[in-house]
Give the backbone structure.
Amino acid sequence: MVSVTNVVLIFMRRTWKNEVFHVRLRQVLYLFMSSRYLLTYIFFAFFCAMSAHWTYSQQQGRDYIRLMFYNTENFFDTVDDPTVNDNDFLPNGSMHWTPSRYFDKRDNIFRVIAHVGEWDPPALIGLCETENRNVLSDLVQNTPLAKYPYRIIHKDSPDLRGIDVALLYRSDYLECVAQQFIRVRFSDNRKRTRDILYATFCTAKKDTIHVFVNHWPSRTGGIRQSEPGRILSASLVRQKVDSVFSRNPLANIVVTGDLNDSPLDKSLVTGLLALNDTALAKPSALFNLSAYKMKESTGTIKYQGKWSVYDQIIVSGGLLRGTLRTDVNRCHIFRAGYLLEPDLRYQGVKPFRTYIGLKYNKGFSDHLPVYLDIMTNVSHPSHL
């Protein structure tokens, strides 16, 4: 179904070539037609209710699993947690994080998930910058995502700000057979960061998928000073990946997350040992599908006018040739117009974030989501 908004945008896109104009137009139309997104909710709920049988039938014949990752940018609740430093994100804190703003944030995250899923939300959703299990439960229980059997994998991490990684999965597509949270321990005990989430799933056809969700240490304090933390995180993932490869060199592995480095940086190349050329596909190796996005002059985050690909999807050689299969053309940055706003300082556009400093910007996140389709009906695997 083509919305009125999209019809108008198609017409305008054929008439004008200015991307900034289209971004601003789409935001205005989006807000105007949704009335705080009420129409989106009504339509989505109606669609889910009227097509329950159709959706079930489609699931039986669906030939791919969609995985997405999204840095939600400070998905905090409004309740004070004395064990973490969440004081800024309280109603009386510096961000004036009111219930109304929290609900808008939750609803925005739902809308991105629904849009990425194209009305059938992804089977796997990796998230970071989530405060706790409460906000995740609220997301899957009190939005139209409640129509789907999402399960939550989460654990409070030692991060001083209290932000964690999490993984949502649909139990109608996947069975979780194992999960683990890998602690990143620094030589300086005062440093803290997010755990690495590792989970193993079984598909309806009894194929196994290993998924790692990451949020590596930020670049705060300088690139060189902070780089050892990201290399440490990368090496821990690689150790676990090698353990999986020791049992099955053709294992299906996906490593995703906000890595705070580009595909060419040391943490990815020498820490994780992720190769950037899928033509070299071989057993017991990882291949960075997001490296190809750097050639497209785009990215998932923009800093001082420059786009970078920090949010990445990396897969094993087995996923490039096996009965479960993907490739670079099935890896995407989700660049919807409403997730962008004009970049008045550096030109072009930038992510439409929730806050700019202390100013409430009413946006979504400072990162763009990424997603991957894994084909499930490949009958003849290729040889590596």
In short: The longest strand covers residues 64-75. The first helix runs from residue 4 to 15.
